[in-house]
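From the shared-data thread, chain only:
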Amino acid sequence: MASTQGPEVPANLKARLEATYDAIAVTYNKVFADENDPFRGKYTSQMLHFLQQNAPEKASVLELGCGAGVPGTRMLLESKSPEIHVIGNDFSSGQIDLAHQRLGKYEEAGRLEFKKGDMMSLEFPRESFDAAVGFYSIIHLPRDEQTELVNRVVKWLKPGGLLLANFDQKEFNNKVNSKWLDHEKGWAYWSGWGEEGSAKMVEEAGLNILVKEVSRCETDATFVWIIARKPWMGDR
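Structure, as tokens:
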């Protein structure tokens, strides 16, 4: 079986995805996460431009699904204006182990910390972050969880805070690929509200969309990339 689409969320979804990313960590990073993905860099640069307009000297960013930390987390940490502290979340020990190896100097400097686990289990005080990013990660959640997570992120953002994330351009309930990346242990799951549905989800959560663009990646997947801002106090 290559891929299926159906109405039911697979059993033990998060545990199965965790096992997949542990098994395919090296393969995944060769295909996507090293220097072969122009989109992370492009949209991270745009987000940093908007963040600079907020004029903080230092900023705190939550990365949902940080993976091995390259190039997305590294690009955030290399920012000089503002200087960024990153909390990186991922449920894969294999991915986080790679991130430790690549970005350990930032951990030692106190600018990077990791929180392992399901992003739906994260808890933070209100207005903790200047920005939150999710590269190819939120799409692994069932659609109702995507909506709930975006609403939580809005609470965690400071006024003027930014969300950068990509969502599937197509609308579908559940999709499974049992051998993703041609890996024997590459079981994967995705869902999507589609281009307009994802934009509506972000806006209904209380964010103002600054960028909405559709980009097709080398694996033939097409995503809508969104950068959105939480209103400043008094804007609404």
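The helical segments are 13-33, 38-53, 72-77, 93-108, 143-156, 194-204.
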